[in-house]
Amino acid sequence: MAVVTALPHELDPVAGAPRSYWRTVAWRLAHDRTTLAAGTVLTLIVLSAVLAPWLAPYDPNAGSIRLRLAPVGAPAHLLGTDEQGRDMLSRLLWGGRMTLVAALTPVVVGFVLGTGLGVLAGYVGGLANTLVMRTMDIFYAFPAVLLAIAISGALGPGLTNTVISLSIVFVPRVVRVAESATVQVKGLEYIAAARASGAGVGPIMRHHLLANVLGPILVFASTQVSLSIILAAGLSFLGLGVTPPAAEWGLMLNTLRQSIYVNAVVPALPGLAIFVTSMAFNLLSDGLRDAMEIRG
Amino acid sequence: MWVYAGHRLLLAIPTLLGASIIVFAMVHLAPGDPIAAVMPAESSQAEIEATKRAYGFDRPLPVQYLVWLGRVAQGDLGRSIATRRPVILDVRDALVNSLVLALSSSGLAFALGIALGLLAAFRQGRALDRIASAVAVVGVSVPHYWAGIILIIVFSVQLNWLPAMGTADGGGPLEYLRHMALPTVALSLIPLGVITRVVRSAALDILNQEFVLALRAKGLAARRVFTHVVKNSAPQIFTVLGLQFGFQLGGSVLVEAVFSWPGTGYLLNLAIFQRDLPVLQGVILVLATFFVLLNLAVDLLQTLVDPRIARH
Lengths: 296, 312
Description:
Chain A is mainly α.
């Protein structure tokens, strides 16, 4: 990516390179302008979503028909109003809450369950591994969008169903990464040395295995966040996610779609919010991967 | 080689069966009794039981699955609840339209992505490389359904150059092409981003190998070096192209919904709206089968291009 990862010694020959791995990573991140910018934008988005009840100037669900589709910059409505006369700024702030919850929860669930299942399958090997991995392969028979729609379409709309269907999308992906990382690390000599020196399965898993596979899995999970945002908003866009009148970016995009002939700017705003958030997550995970020197 | 091909073929069978189980399970994931949903509200308990028997819902689940699978294998995907038409007919018509869009958008994304990725690798760190990186990030970050809406706003509403909806029934090939333009561009964004990125990194991997240095050292023309690099990164590029084409078929749902393009995605969208489970199941099963077979074909073709793979 356009990320310039200068090596520590190239910029600061006097102080010398930081000593530990995590310090090096932190040092690199702190000196990577793209990643810093993405991180700042993300912090602002997350903060505005968390603080929506205090920041939003209006009730996101209250509107007046007389004020429909006010343009951006209208008096008292900074970002205009939607097709029902509801304040766009308030709805975008509240919508971000919903979109972030709907998108981040599945990735966290995928990370936790996927890591557990993948590390176990990779460490135990044999029949258990075959069983787990072949089951995961089945989910790869569907492109992500299609799998999400299949499960959501069957379960019906709603935030919980969106989270369930997207979790089913992400668990198999994380399992694959976790399993292959575990198999790789398991074969390294220091694990054999730990086992030879009498360490039990528990300590080996905790200290030697997890410590070394969590990094790559975390980076992989972070690359999935932007996909999750696009999918979560996409499901509501299809009417499978959050139900009206709740504010959610994908749903707002859908209901405003009919209004593009009246006002071209306001209907574009929720999509812009999805785009900026997903891009910030992508740039951040790119930076993280470069800083942690993880390939893939 | 043949052993590998056979092995790979055998592996596709459980995957397909597993996919069919997921699709079959969709009916039972759905809240409420699938029969109660289609029966008139005033039907008696006896009538409901009779319908259940007629549809085979009174039998154990594994038996129901096998009966269903047997029908599917013969091309019978059931009937739509909304239109009473056989699902297979609707899916067939829609699949043609989706394939057209998948081919056009893949073609656009492949051509642009490969060109941009290669140029970026050979101009590493310069302006062009930065543009390629920006394209790659934007491509994978942009919600393509929103990009579709933006395209409509700009090219249909504001400029009035291109139509926004449908396929122009009976409007002739030129009208069809005009209707294809915007959805094609919207759909090409994701693969464009992914391909640019993969091609760039694949070409860079080869460029950094010693044999390229040797080729340059012996004074080979830049054009010939380029050919060597392209040839060696081809297998990796090939894989991503195959995968992306598969995603195009299944991933067009949202873009088709935006443009009312009468493909599988639009059909799915309609089925979701009407809670028409047989159509939902049929479309998803057909698309998943296509996707698995396509991946299989890509794998097999890849071993032809690069025989080293079969040995792994």
